[in-house]
Specification:
Layout: H1 22-32, H2 41-77, H3 80-99, H4 104-111, H5 117-144, H6 151-156, H7 158-184, H8 188-205, H9 215-237, H10 239-242, H11 255-286, H12 289-320, H13 327-352, H14 354-360, H15 365-376, H16 378-393, H17 397-418, H18 428-466
Helix pairs in contact: 2-8, 2-12, 2-13, 3-5, 3-7, 3-9, 3-11, 3-12, 4-7, 4-11, 5-7, 7-9, 8-9, 11-12, 11-17, 12-13, 12-15, 12-16, 13-15, 13-16, 15-18, 16-17, 16-18, 17-18
């Protein structure tokens, strides 16, 4: 494990330190869209962006490899029904974790970016809010959605089953905010180390309790438990790299702005990630557990691949949120990297889809059938993800709402129509079609909205040069 002692770096100024006058806001926006020569602060920002993106992409590859090994071993040694129940519960955890996020991963990148007391207070309150939201969201999901796979929890123990589910949700949610804290500290190696340990732990635990009557529950714990443990451990150890402690006072001057920013981005994050987390839930509610296991195999590959542009967007958000960042040039670099990687992944998937059947067996032929189209959607997904990140960094709230609302409506509404039913074009085929077409529509809208937002911002800056009292936001 990498040494967790804090490195010696100058404290980075947070948003509260930036001048709140119209002139200060104009200067900040102009600086972010100004390209500098190599060797300048902009070039240094590019290096950090590339470093962070590269580490997260490697982490996605490790996570994907670990998930594939886990699925292969389960497909060979366990029944498809048991795997279907376990994967349905794990999908449910991912969905509830997303509900419990409260926009904090985005807000913490902006308002807890350094080692100041204010950053530690904001992070501590974020952890408290995450814990409460996790319990409430877990109870709400199990009570309202009541997925068929929840019987695995109740058959083991009605109270213990809920506590186990809620703790896995809470630890998973903690892992997200701890990762963001490490990213803002530029300790990308710790993020990668956590991902590697989780991937290895899943596979190492698999032989335990192979003949247990609660095998689906154990498989669920093996899938979600390591992530949750890493979240609790990260929360306990993260201050060793930030050089402070968890504290709830004094109230930082950015508290109100951070809360408002979190709520705005919570709604946008719900909309942006709704298709990513809701589509698997729609599938598990409308298909049997054996069919769901086929979808889970394909979705496991797609989800890891789609994490790549999301990770690059996280790196862009962490770097773009720092004072002196040059978002336009960083955006060009991030877009080229994300779209190029997703295009490469699409080609590999089209050429190698037969490997899925060879590896998992003929029972998983449906996985290979839907995989290419779902991977192709990664190219427009990358565009939407990064345009959304730019809108968040530049506080273009209207663009944020339009992009996320379009993404949600374009995928979820068709999925609700196409997934239910047993006829041609329904079931897994319906899910695949809704995913691809919806992402294409969302990327087209995001491209137009971003172009309009950039022109509007440029126009305001130009006007501000002539009128020093004109606000730009």
């Amino acid at each position: 494990m990498t040494d967790l002692q804090p490195t010696v770096e100058p404290t980075l100024p947070g948003p509260a330190d930036v001048a709140q006058t119209p002139a200060g806001r104009r200067a900040a926006l102009r600086a972010r869209f100004r390209t500098r020569a190599a060797g300048s602060p902009a070039a240094a920002g590019h290096r950090h962006l590339l470093t962070g993106s590269s580490v997260l992409v490697i982490g996605a590859a490790v996570q994907g490899l670990g998930g594939m090994v886990f699925s292969l071993l389960v497909a060979q040694g366990d029944t498809k029904a048991d795997f279907g129940d376990a994967s349905a519960l794990f999908t449910s955890v991912l969905f509830v974790t997303y509900l419990a996020g409260l926009g904090l991963p985005v807000a913490l990148a902006r308002y807890a970016p350094d080692r100041s007391v204010s950053s530690h207070v904001v992070f501590a309150w974020g952890a408290v809010a995450t814990a409460l939201a996790s319990v409430v969201a877990a109870a709400g999901y199990l009570g309202i959605v009541h997925p068929k796979a929840a019987g695995v929890l109740w058959d083991w123990n009605p109270v213990g089953g809920f506590v186990l589910f809620a703790l896995i949700v809470m630890g998973s949610a903690f892992s997200l905010i701890v990762d963001v804290r490490c990213m803002t500290m530029r300790r990308w190696n710790l993020v990668l180390a956590r991902i590697v340990l989780v991937a290895v732990a899943k596979v190492v635990l698999l032989p335990i309790g192979h003949d247990s009557v609660h095998r689906p529950l154990l498989l669920f714990v093996f899938l979600g438990g390591p992530v949750a443990v890493s979240g609790f451990a990260g929360l306990a150890l993260v201050n060793r790299i930030t050089g402070g402690r968890h504290q709830l006072a004094p109230t930082p001057p950015t508290a109100r702005a951070a809360t408002r920013y979190s709520l705005i981005n919570y709604l946008s994050t719900l909309a942006y990630q709704a298709p990513y987390f809701a589509l698997p839930v729609i599938v598990l509610v409308h298909v049997d557990n054996a069919t769901n296991s086929s979808f889970y195999v394909a979705w496991g590959i797609v989800a890891i691949a789609f994490y790549v542009p999301s990770a690059i967007g996280q790196a862009l958000l962490a770097e773009g949120g720092k004072d002196g960042a040059h978002v336009r040039s960083q955006m060009h670099l991030a877009m080229a990297l994300a779209v190029g990687l997703m295009a490469l992944g699409t080609v590999v998937t089209f050429l190698g889809k037969g490997i899925v059947v060879a590896a998992y067996g003929d029972d998983y032929r449906d996985s290979a059938h839907i995989l290419p189209a779902m991977m192709l959607a990664g190219i427009p997904w990358a565009m939407s993800s990064l345009y959304l990140t730019e809108a968040r960094v530049m506080h273009r709230h209207a663009s944020t709402v339009i992009i996320t609302a379009t993404l949600t409506a374009a995928i979820i509404l068709p999925a609700l129509v196409l997934v239910p039913g047993d006829g041609p074009g329904h079931g897994l085929d319906g899910a695949s079609r809704a995913w691809l077409v919806g992402n294409v529509i969302a990327a087209a809208v995001a491209t137009v909205v971003t172009a309009v937002g950039r022109r509007t911002s440029a126009g305001r800056l130009a006007a501000a040069e002539l009128d020093p009292l004109l606000p730009v936001s």
